[in-house]
Amino acid sequence: MLMIDYDLHCHSTVSDGLLSPTELVARAAERGVKILALTDHDDVDGLEEAAQASAACGISFINGVEISVTWRGFTLHVVGLRIDPYYPPLVEGLRGIRSGRRHRAELMAESLARCGIGGVLEGAYRYAKNPEMIGRTHFARYLVDAGHCKDVGSVFKRYLVKGKPGYVPHQWAELQDAVDWIKGAGGVTVLAHPGRYTAGRKAMGRPTMHELLEEFTAMGGKAIEVVTGSHTPPQYAEFARYATEFGLLSSCGSDYHGPGESYRDLGRLPDLPLECKPIWSAWE
Ligand code: AMP
Ligand code: MN
Ligand code: MN
Ligand code: MN
Hints:
Layout: E1 6-7, H1 21-30, E2 35-38, H2 47-56, E3 60-71, E4 74-81, H3 88-99, H4 101-114, H5 120-126, H6 136-145, H7 152-160, H8 175-184, E5 188-191, E6 198-199, E7 202-203, H9 206-219, E8 223-228, H10 233-246, E9 249-253
Parallel strand pairs: 1-2, 2-3, 5-8, 8-9
Antiparallel strand pairs: 3-4, 4-5, 6-7
Helix pairs in contact: 1-2, 5-6, 6-7
The structure holds adenosine monophosphate and manganese (II) ion (3 copies).
Residues 9, 11, 66, 255 line the site of one manganese (II) ion (MN).
């Protein structure tokens, strides 16, 4: 089997990854990745460092970002690839998203304090190398180390998802804005891990997924992730069918966050299903 050496989705300490951009690139290189995109949540601050580290170890680097979006009550993630990270509307838009995170974190901590878990705000900030990007993962890591749960996944289940005491609803960017920022920055817009969207415990049903993909393509969205660390093999097939149906390109990425925390390590992802048109087919 021909290995795909593309990994077009991963995180560094600039958002909620555990490795610095340089460490992340080194690990990708060790694992045979040839083309890598760094896609930190709502921030492009790691791209220069990652590009330099990539040049030093022969990786072809792609500037990326993963933008948090609210659409009909769902939190969606929209990845931008091959963006110009200095495009002012993108820079401003991302700054706007980040600025809401501090207040959300305070509300999360207050809510956890009401059910007897105190000191969480200061605790979580100790885990956020980039304080502007304080997020649920930093809370989770703190709560694990403070002995409340055995691992990050259990913290989410018990405290940080809709209906649980540490969950605070939040208004992220508009889908249209995220698409426009990425397009304006010269990038390709990718709907990240479409199989993971839920409202509470309920997965997004087929009719809603259809409406989302219709809107997304009409807005200028170009691709969806088919192979990602958050999809099961049956979902590779399911979203390959959606890609074909909506004329979308297909992307693949590990969504790696760090040692011991991700289903998938960097690179060595399964091939895209044969029917898919890879996102990089337009790049070569
Ligand atoms: P935030 O943007 O602060 O709401 O955090 C979202 C991040 O939390 C995602 O990008 C994932 O890294 C992480 N996450 C979300 N759900 C889970 C989960 N069930 N288990 C572990 N990590 C999760
Ligand atoms: Mn994350
Ligand atoms: Mn995501
Ligand atoms: Mn991600």
